[in-house]
Amino acid sequence: MNGASDSTPRFNPKGIPAAPKDPLYSLVSAYEADESDQKVDLGVGAYRDENAQPWILPVVRKATEIINQDTKQNHEYIPIAGLPEFNSAAQSLILGVDSIAIKEKRVCSFQTISGTGAVHLGALLMAKFTPRPSPFVFISSPSWPIHDQVFDTVGLPVRHYPYFRKDTKTFDFDGMMDVLKSAPKGSIIVLHACAHNPTGVDPTDDEWKEIAKVMQANELFPFFDCAYQGFATGYLSQDSFAVRYFVQQGFQVAIAQSFAKNLGLYGQRVGAFHFVAGPGADAQSITDNIASQLSILQRSEISSPPIFGAKIASIVLNDPQLFSEWEKDLLTMSGRIKKMRKCLKEELDRLHTPGTWDHIVNQIGMFSFTGLTPSQVLELREKWHVYMAETGRISVAGLNDRNVAYFARAVDDVVRRVL
Ligand SMILES: Cc1ncc(COP(=O)(O)O)c(C=O)c1O
Question: Where is the Aminotransferase class I/classII large domain (predicted)?
């Protein structure tokens, strides 16, 4: 071929600007480099035990032993959609064992690279199969920052709905409802199934019902992100109330599910994407067609998902004895987080720290949106060696009996001195 003219589209590496660093990963590096023995890590969204150490769930240890003792284990590829016994158990976990949608075979499930991979696979499906101009994807403000990034990366236009009232530090139900009422029909609404990241505030069951009513009336598409099932209340079925309610109401639903937090399998990258078709004569064929398209997307991106973490999850989810041990592990984690919320609030009350701190105990899940300003967060880091997100979010799991009083003193100091 002749040389391309100047107007020929081409990949131009020289024109690519540097992208900003991921703020949370930068925070981890800064924490690791800090040599103070008083340093406190409240940035990373991962559970820590009372010694500030990662916790391998006892049930995960048992499942790993079972795998290691099985002489028939190998490292063969697994199917494109992932381990079938993992997918079916993950489905039942989120939708409920007697879900009508499962009985009617209108659910398809794909094992993914944890929750992020599940959000991405769903986003990719929607980006490929929606007409241009694409529908808007509405994401809560604030949200897990990667939501914007994932939908933006696949070319879907992102909009936001209000979620958090700064004055009361509570859920902004009216603000969210106003946007849902005026969103264009067909918009995709990303909903945190429970333990909203970063605010720690969830709609009540009644509020979820109102949200569903408006979404149904306005023909909006729910895309649930469920990264913390079992972490909010400590109970798996209560934490999936919203998802199950929407399915019962006959919605078609997309669900991204992560086992990073509730099984402590962070780096193993275990998750699932589920698509639930609405009830109707064509539900099964819609589900089958979507599954066939997901196969192509999955095959082009990762070929087939990794085996080890999914086997661990599958063993725990499918064995009644191990499952009930897991439920206890979940209560251990959520219980310790609740205890730390209470201790922090008590310490702040004891110090008469200016402001109200009820939200620390009223918020739920792994995070608390403290209301601390970016300057206070910076001062906490520079003077007190406390590392937390610039938004004022703390991972409550990073607190323990040894550092909670220290953290409260640090907060008290910066709140009094820094705006
Ligand atoms: C709301 C939300 N969604 C998804 C994820 C995905 O996590 P992972 O990819 O580790 O499962 C997270 C993790 O922090 C999250 O907070």
Answer: 38-410
